[in-house]
Design brief:
alpha/beta; 434 Repressor (Amino-terminal Domain); Rossmann fold; 5-stranded parallel sheet; 10 strands; DNA-binding; LacI/GalR-like_sensor
């Protein structure tokens, strides 16, 4: 597709080429209303900055971007992102870099944020989380020429730099543990199926269940405490019900523990619960929850080191 030019943007926006240049380069010389109109038209026309021209300028924003497409409630409850952002910030502080954190409600808004950041040169690179299968963010980031490091398995990254933990090995370890304890009916309360890491865990869960001869059931949720609790109630209402449940995050596991105790069952005597990430939540419950440990702070730090290395 032919590259959209500044002249074409100027014609559609009804302004001069100079005004477009000022607006796209975030420079003074145009009114706020004109700047907003130019940026809106540029986004509608899918304008992409000329990479060669950008490289002529050594100026950097010294800012990395992170977009989280989650509800505000999930972000306030979920300990993963607090630890992850803490790891990112610990590295950025050493280099006097800043983090532009944008919370959006859906993937379309996330894509629009990347276009805006690229057009305004707001960030030097981005950290991308919650990879999807056939993720539309990957081709967009390539098109924008925006340096990125992805948090996810190489199968999902399509050749872009990525940092990941071995969820397959972890799932085999978890199911091997419950099988050793004598469990034969094992359930999993999983995250959204469109997420790549959930897809990989789904696959590993099936493989490991077959390996250990387990009867299994999976319920997908949105990672929230409410849905984690609801899934636990559904599982415990079944006949026969599972004797072990693995949760895709700590928040759902804690909610599940509350449901189990509310029904008068005792953990781990009557049922085994396993959380994922091993945050502080798992250590303040009674009894403490067994968890697959994941160094979330270290993950955030490593991703940031990788992104800095792309720019050095």
């Amino acid at each position: 597709m032919p590259r959209v030019t500044i002249k074409e943007i100027a014609r559609r926006a009804g302004v001069s080429k100079g005004a477009v240049s000022y607006a796209l380069n975030n420079q003074p010389g145009v009114s706020a209303a004109t700047r907003a109109r130019v940026l809106r038209v540029a986004e509608e026309m899918e304008w992409v900055p000329n990479r060669a021209a950008r490289q002529l300028s050594a100026a950097r924003s010294e800012t990395f971007g992170l977009v989280l497409a989650r509800t505000a409630q999930t972000l306030t409850e979920e300990p993963f992102y607090m630890g992850f952002v803490g790891g990112v910030e610990s590295v950025l502080a050493e280099r006097s870099y800043a983090l532009a954190l944008q919370v959006v409600t859906n993937l379309d808004e996330e894509l629009a944020t990347y276009r805006k950041w690229a057009a305004e040169r707001r960030v030097d690179g981005v950290i991308v989380v919650d990879l999807r299968v056939s993720d539309p963010r990957i081709p967009l980031l390539r098109k924008l020429g925006l340096p990125a490091v992805l948090v996810g398995h190489p199968e999902l990254a399509d050749g872009l730099p990525c940092v990941w933990s071995d969820a397959t090995a972890a799932m085999h370890t978890a199911l091997g543990h419950v099988a050793t304890l004598g469990h034969r009916r094992v359930a999993r309360v999983a995250g959204p199926p469109e997420y790549g890491d959930v897809w990989i865990r789904d696959r590993a869960f099936v493989e490991a269940s077959s390996r250990y001869g387990l009867e299994t059931k999976v319920i997908h949720t949105d990672y929230s405490a409410d849905q984690g609790a609801a899934a636990t109630r559904d599982l415990l209402a079944a006949d026969p019900r599972p004797t072990a449940i693995i949760y895709d995050n700590d928040l759902m596991a804690v909610a599940g523990l509350s449901v189990v105790q509310g029904l008068g069952a005792v953990v781990p005597r009557d049922i085994t619960l396993i959380a994922w990430d091993d945050s502080t939540l798992c250590r303040i419950t009674h009894p403490r929850l067994t968890a697959m440990s994941n160094n979330v702070v270290g993950l955030g730090a490593e991703v940031t080191h990788r992104l800095l290395a792309l720019l050095d």
